[in-house]
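Troubleshooting: if your tokenizer reports a length mismatch, compare against these two reference records.
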Amino acid sequence: MLYHMYEFQHSLFAPARYAVDMTQQALSDPQNPLSYMPGAKQVSAACDVMELLTRRYGKPKFGLHETLIDREVVSIQEHNILEKPFCNLKYFQRDIKNDDPKLLIVAPMSGHYATLLRGTVEAMLPDHKVYITDWNDARDVPLHKGKFDLDDYIDYVIEMIEALGPNVHILAVCQPSVPVLAAISLMSAEDNPCVPASMTLMGGPIDTRNCPTEVNKLSAERSLSWFKQHVTHHVPWPNKGCMRIVYPGFLQLSAFLNMNMEDHVEAHKKMFDHLVEGDDENVDKHRLFYEEYLAVMDLTAEYFLQTVDVVFQQHLLPKGEWVSNGRLVDLSAITKCALMTVEGELDDISGIGQTKAAHDLCSNIPKDMKSHYEQKNVGHYGIFNGSKWRNKIAPRVKDFIRAQG
């Protein structure tokens, strides 16, 4: 019922949004005499902010058309080299042939689209053949395509690694650190020839018993039945995934916003001021960030609930008790895949020590194939995006990958 109400309010508010949009366009048009009236800029700015907050955002585009290699501009073409019901394996093909390492970036499936890692991809493109898991919105996947849970996630990762062949490197951002670690463990136990050369885990909830955050505490305090009853809903008609049970993206977005509500309110106040002042540069920065941040996708209920159960409540991975589709996830089986972990000092999603725990769990990886880096004065988002990612974290990740070549 909640999802239906959400859809209904979007439809109900559509005429008001249209009126707000038309007002904003009229009062920002220099050829309109009314745009020079006292208070016109303030009304136009208010309409602009209102339109931004109430718009329904679709899946953003990566929009990466070129990169710089050895001071030369190289064009980029996007291709899907593997298509699955819930995910496409996207390749950013560079118009150059060299022996740069293959890098599979596993994007989080936690409410936002893979385009949230645009900055991650952009930083790695000059030195790697970059692939990324481009997850599909569960509300767009027809019910007859079947289920998708955390075990399926692991199988997807294994299939994509095998599609890329030997000597690939993996970079997992946040949530996928857990299934990526599990996938490499299972491949190692089976002596799979496509076991990756290295894995870099960034801000992932490997062991949430270490320095638990508010997110971890909330997941542990509520029962699984509570989550099933209160936060999973049927996808309404006319979406392609009608009647599929999902954890709606708008609920996840609400949780993200509530964690830092004062910061978001202040950011929109500043946008209003910048609009009135005509500061287009800062307005564009704000708009680009929130067009990405407010674009959310639904997750299948079975994936969401199993993640809460396995990762945040029972802690099966660090306990060595996780059995995925009849296969024991034994991290001690990993011996040939190098491991790097990255954490942010101010991370309020995955606390300090949660990702680093992978080093003790992967006890049979040689010490000279392990590396850990903690970035000071950076939060969760800053681990994989922004200036500190580009200037401090990415160079270390690149050096680590090259060292395992």
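Reference record two:
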Amino acid sequence: MNTEQQTTNNEQQSVKPDDGLIVLKNLTRRFGNNVVLDDISLAIEKGKTTVVIGPSGCGKSVLLKHMIVLMRPTLGEVYFKNKRIDNLDDQLLTGVRAHFGYLFQAGALFDSLSVAENIMFPVRQHCQITRFSAVEELVRNKLKMVGLDGLQRFYPANLSGGQRKRVALARAIALDPEVILYDEPTTGLDPIRADTINELILKLKGELGVTSVAVTHDMKSAYKIADRIVMLHHGKIIADGNADYIRNHPDPIVQQFIKGEISKKELEQLHKASVGSSVRLPCDVED
């Protein structure tokens, strides 16, 4: 048995519905003949931050969407608070989803709505509003938490990329969720703005006691915010532990990813590939 197979078998443990706040049990997701998640079992501990890493296309975002049943598994089960949720109808799922906040990769703000209206959106969806003054106070409070109070009347087009991410985060916490799911929270941001998001993730965990799950390629962010890091590869969990454990993991696939290095085989193929230097254009090019 090779190292990768040993790691896969050792890292993934069987789980029970009451092993965590969120539990994925023997989860498989196929798209046609393509198996994206392959018999995944994972328990998310309450009050902790779990970061999911792995190469592009390995199923990180698909895994995240199953936790809130934006996607349903081909096989397997999803539990929240010891209750199975992947088999619920959409009406019942609406109540479950009120316990979750979701920060989408691109923020997913509504361009036609102001900052305040964007933050109000989930409140309007899940609550019967009787006092708009209370909603205005809620919006102000959430914007203060992300350092943007005063931008209520602005529109997304008037904001920087970092500000849009922070408004989207304010919207994600509008209903005081127990769980926040982060899909590539620092993608597209410069290092300083990315670290601002990292600090906000830590702040929300500390002040609100939320359970967080983040998927990312950003190892600096992963090491900073994670209590636990899980790595996916070919639809399987191949590494699972704290930051120090991941840094020193024996699997070369894990080391290649966390160091951001191309493999020797890929490098050889890259250099063997012809760049077409001897091919001439089928026309004359004027100087």
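Descriptive notes for reference record two:
- The two ends are 61 Å apart (CA to CA).
- DSSP finds eleven helices and ten strands in the chain.
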